[in-house]
Amino acid sequence: MSENTTDQFFKSTVLGHPAGLFVLFFTEMWERFSFYGMRSLLILFLTTSLTDGGWEWSRENASALFGSYVGLVYLSTMLGGYFADKVIGFRWAVVVGAILMTLGHASMAVETEFSIYLGLILLVFGNGFFKPNMTSIVSEMYKDRPEKKDGAYTLFYMGVNAGAFFGILLCGYLGEKVGWSYGFGLAGIFMFFGMLQFWLSQNIFGDIGLKPNKESKAKAEALDTDKRNPFSPIQLAAIAFSSLIALLWLINDPASKISGGKVNIFSFLGEKGNSIAIVSALVVFIILLIYRFTQYSKITKEKLIAVTFFAFLTIFFWAIFEQSPNSLTIFANDYTDRVLTGNWSVVFLVMNSLITILPLVIITWVLILLFKQTFKFYAIANMILSVSFIIIWAIAIWMLAKDYYTAGYLSLSDDTLQALKIDKVTTALTEVPATWFSTLNSLFIISLAPLFSKWWESKYNPSANLKYGIGMGLLALGMACVAFGASGIEAGAKTASVSMIWLILVYLFHTMAELCISPVGLSYVSKLVPARMIAFMFGVWYLAVAIGMKGAGMFGENIDKIANEHGLSYFFWMLAIISIVVALFSILMGPVIKKLMHGVR
Q: Where does the UniProt annotation locate this protein (predicted)?
């Protein structure tokens, strides 16, 4: 049997899947732990007062930096994907990305101005190398077992959501309750553990993801029989121009605002230099895209137009959905009553204990199953993974003990408090961390994903446009909830005590919206785009996501301006109206897009 066939991976299985899938599961889990853990803290850290250890930035400047950061994260995936495919291979790309992210989190933990900016730069490039290449390895492992691929991705994305959940829960808790550097630093520690266990277990992947050589490149070219439509020098120059201007704009936009105009790359274009630059880049890219479409057959061209339509809708989805770590976290921190008393305190403590311990028990069980299959061959990697779980269990139990003690339901001696590094309290208090609400997204995804999967597989499976319409409608419903909850907040108010139920409803509806749109969009790219154009159109797709992410920051920048003039509720109603307009547009365009898709469902 050839060592490159997928049969070798299925000789040693866990839950019916190759043990290698679970190496990827835990690597991705720790990466998502670090990414979402840091992301949940960034806006709070930047806007918190200097006396509380933050930078006391305006919400406008914090949102500008946040938007550029997450936008650059998605743009950098194109660079990482290119280097992995052409130069270093998937494995080295994952390791390089993990090392850069570990250094990035460590840099942020130092908390100086230079170290924070350096950390964000390292995290951008680290994500770019890491993010696109993990799924590439999964895809290669299952290339001859397509019937198992859906189950594999379901398990893999369980790892993604488990990492996001624990990252926000634990990094967020440490950042808010103990110190920002602890939250940032914890994210880096687990990224480091993930990198080590991946590197030490890499032989489990056979030849997958190795550095490309002449033989592997020749084999790949032989399999690609599609007709080529190469980029001309002028087209390459147009891509280079658009990319460079977009990159400079993403950096310059927050830099010019934070510096008060002292740093402004596009000042030579006048007062509106930033806007002129990015509009010019977009116009050039759109012209190039339209021209490229004219070079293909009628059917291919129409399918590409359909993909571009969905990419356009995706911009609005992410711009509004990504208010979670931005304006919704600000709303949770400054405008929500997070103090619980009496029975509600007990309910929260018990519920928080269950949602913390039960997932850890399940994932630990999966870890034990993996050990049984791989410990003999990858003992050191498994021991590192064991250490990481011992630490995560210790932090989780410490967090719960601290909460029960602070709420007055657990008595601890002074010596025990000192040993556990828990501050002594005289007044019982249960206060929900502002970042805690963001964990609800991962929790709802794990709970609701099987239901939505069954819906998509049934005879009631909606069309692509209707899925987008439903998703944007649910997004509007979520924003309407928080807008209604904020209706009693007066214009210009900096604090309030709104009920937590509105934020819980937001995350419920927004998670359902995500399940309608996020996995569906990428699926249509792979279904509608010819093999020879997959890389380019995925680039277009991630460009749309990056624009949406920056759009989220731009919406967040205006929260104070709108709230001061019209009230905070107006801001959320505005996002709800945009969502419902996009939803109706998607549904109305259904017959047109269905025709362009030529039978693809």
A: Cell membrane; Membrane
